[in-house]
Amino acid sequence: MLDAVQRTGRRLLAFDRRLGARWIAGTDEAGRGCLAGPLVTAGVLFDYDRIRGYVTASLGTLNDSKQLEFAERERLYRVVLMLAARVNVQIVPSLEIDRSGLHRSNLGGLRRCLAALTPPAEICLVDGFKLGPQAPEHTAVVDGDQKSAAIAAASVVAKVTRDRLMRRFDALYPGFGFASHVGYITPRHADAVRALGPSRLHRMSFQARCYRSDSVERGTPASDDNSSGDVRRSTLLATK
Fold first, then answer.
1. Spatial distance between the Cα atoms of 61 and 129, rounded to a whole number of angstroms
2. Of 88, 124, 186, 209, which is the most exposed, with the fewest CB atoms less than 10 Å away?
3. Where are the alpha helices (H) located in the chain, listed in sequence order?
4. How many degrees, rounded to 5, is the angle at CA 153 between CA 150 and CA 155?
5. Dist. CA 174–CA 170, nearest whole Å
6. Strand pairing report for 123-127 and 23-30
7. How many CB atoms sit inside 10 A of residue 171's CB?
């Protein structure tokens, strides 16, 4: 079983290597299906002249982040940040999702990630979506987070970043259970929304049945931290 798990990373790396380029960027998102919290997109740029030999062993279990256990996802997050030439993260708050729509917000975040990695990226890969002519030249790969190492790495970065944010928001918005479900709809989450009303993190454009009405006020954070109660878009760019 362990050998089969270890082969996932080698298979994903082989997919990218067959493209014949040195600099390959992949991008993916986390949180599209969530009822609350930001959408997080991430881009990872690998220099395949450096990802060779014993270094590849640390990426042996790389896979779609949804297929990974928590501890392994956290380990791979650290490995990706160490090995990647660049990493870019875009955080799209729920209020912007409500204004622009989920799909448009997602495409915009993915475009910004690729733009931050190009150049030197020679090939840009996106998990499933064509991003339009405003984006750098790219290829949409269906189920890319299960095929490409660069996309899978971006999937891990996006997922870990978003989950960490939601666990922090659990302290600001007690009672919603964000630390456990990280914003996805669950029976407990729905019950909390019915009891407390939507928080500022909730996406009102989703028109979920657990919302009392379209006009209900969003909840306020438990502590005064001089914030609006929502995440502003931010960018992380790590360069080696």
1. 25
2. 209
3. 2-17, 70-83, 94-100, 102-117, 149-172, 178-181, 187-196
4. 110
5. 6
6. parallel
7. 13
pTM: 0.88
- Residues 183, 32 contacting (CB under 8 angstroms): no
pLDDT at 224 over 90: no
Q: What is the DSSP letter of 199?
A: B
Distance of alpha carbon 201 from alpha carbon 227, whole angstroms:
12
Which pLDDT tens digit goes with each residue over 120-164?
Answer: 999 999 999 999 999 999 999 999 999 999 999 999 999 999 999
The residue type of 79 is V
> Domains of the chain by range and CATH?
2-166 (3.30.420.10)
Task: Look at the block and give the residue holding tokens 């960027």.
Answer: 25
* Pairing label, strands 139-141, 39-47: unpaired
Contact between 139 and 123 under an 8 Å Cβ cutoff? The reply is: yes
Distance between terminal CA atoms of the chain?
Answer: 35
The Cα–Cα gap between 96 and 100 comes to 6
DSSP code for 136: P
pLDDT bucket at 234, cuts 50 / 70 / 90: very low
